[in-house]
Amino acid sequence: MKQENKDLHNEVISLQHNMRNMVQGFSCTTSSFPLLNELTNEVSEFLKCDCQDAFFDFLSPELNLDGVVYFYKHCFGPIHKQLRSYFEPLYKSIQNQLCIESIDGPILNVLSKSYQNNWQTIFSRCFPKTKITQIMRSIQNTLKIADDRDEGMNNEITSFIAKAAEICFKMYISEPQIVFDLSLVGAKVGFS
Predict the structure, then answer these.
(1) What span, in angstroms and rounded, lies between the C-alpha atoms of 191 and 110?
(2) 32: Cβ–Cβ under 8 A, 6 or more apart, which residues?
(3) What does the alpha-carbon distance between residue 87 and residue 119 come to, in Å, rounded to a whole number?
(4) What is the pLDDT tens value at each position of the chain, 192 positions in all?
(5) Checking phi first, is residue 99 left (phi over 0); if not, alpha (psi -120 to 50) or beta?
(6) What is the structure's pLDDT at 82?
(7) Within 13 Å, how many C-alpha atoms sit on residue 111's CB side?
(8) Residue 97 lies in a domain
(9) In terms of residue numbers, what domain contains 104?
């Protein structure tokens, strides 16, 4: 069974490699950055699994519903703020140098491909461990869900924020860009 699965796994990797080479402009990116459909699946899995695990593992036992909403809203907000503060100076500089109102089309495409080629290095600079810890401490101080003695809870929160930051970063540099609608976090939704 292991051998059959290994052969099937190798065949899937080979097919993915062949499909990637068919994508226009692929030579500008590494195979480590997911294609749009792979990234969509990754985001879906994150929202289904990681967010749900966080809810059941360390949020719902400690917080009421308002606290849970606060956690998600104040987890993704600082992540997006950090992304904007990291990339906006570059975009503003390009706009000033080229005397253009907005960056789109081929310029944005080339920038996105460059980001995707070096995404792991850029991500580590955009979100150093100190930034992840800072976001965790900010949420932790407001919600009082853990303290310095509760290392396990701190690690769970930190790993969730790091995963959320990676997902948001990949969405931000994907071509086309995928966007979380943060205004809907905490909004009342009617179910039929």
Answers:
(1) 42
(2) 119, 120
(3) 13
(4) 556 677 777 777 777 766 665 555 555 455 578 888 888 889 889 988 888 888 888 888 888 888 888 888 888 889 999 999 999 999 999 999 988 888 887 888 888 888 988 899 999 999 999 999 999 888 888 877 766 556 777 788 889 999 999 999 999 998 888 887 777 777 776 666
(5) left
(6) 94
(7) 15
(8) yes
(9) 36-182
Backbone angles phi, psi at 27, to 5 degrees: -60, -15
Coil/strand/helix, residue 16: helix
- Two tokens, residue 119: 């995404």
Half-sphere exposure of 76 (CA within 13 A, CB side): 19
To the nearest 10 degrees (0 to 180), the angle between helices 151-173 and 36-45 is 150
Classify residue 68: in a domain, yes or no. yes
Model pTM score: 0.76
Whether 6 is covered by a domain: the verdict is no
Question: Does residue 152 lie in a domain region?
Answer: yes
Provide the pLDDT for residue 9: 74
The structural domain count of the chain equals 1
Dist CA 79 CA 141 (whole Å): 17
CB atoms within 10 A of CB 41: 12
